[in-house]
User: Fold this.
Amino acid sequence: MKTYLKVLAHRDRTEASDRHLAFYLTFIAGAANAGGFMAVHQYTSHMSGVVSSLADNLVLGEVELLLAGLTALVFFLFGAGVSAILINWGRRRNLRSIYALPLALEACLLLLFALSGMLGPIGHGLTFLIIALLCFVMGLQNAIITKLSGARIRTTHVTGLVTDTGIELGKLFYWNSRQQTEQGFAPVQADMAKLWLLARMVGLFFLGGVTGAILFQRIGISAAIFLAIPVAILALFPLLEDYRARYGNNDGED
Assistant:
């Protein structure tokens, strides 16, 4: 188990480690998205809806909702940018924890979200802070998977996942006529491995949403601790490996 966990967020990647890390983070994203809605009545993972709401609220003159949307958009961008900075900073220093660094930050922010439940009733100020924090986390996480997979996988962008699923289903059910084959057209074929990957990721986001909604409904914002812990575990082993590589040979020195 330890060996398995060590490779999930490690610098040295395999197709299996990319896929498995994406599965875990997709589940976490679904749970955090649902938890955010339970806390502040706003989903924080999809920017398509946020940008659309910005246009609507600008026309309607809903200043408070407009500010909430701007906060969501800016902090999602900020999170993705910080993720890219941390990954490139680690890569330039040849760290094994280049992907664990933003994961560790995500775990800390989810813990901060959990602790915010101890501040009492959620007012307007705390609502904006929670929206900013969760959108930052979503941007941070989405950028991690985008970077390590070469933009093949995203964990919070379910619109893209469903679109790609639909494309593969269209290929799967396309009728390749004999006449078209004889005319030299290559047969249209679905990528079954990709289709299975996409279907699982959509399902895991949904399952994470159900789990998050149940936890936050029964426990409150403090339920975010159950999201922070697994993310911290994913980040732990590469960080320890870098720590030992840097300081492990200093034992016994003055």
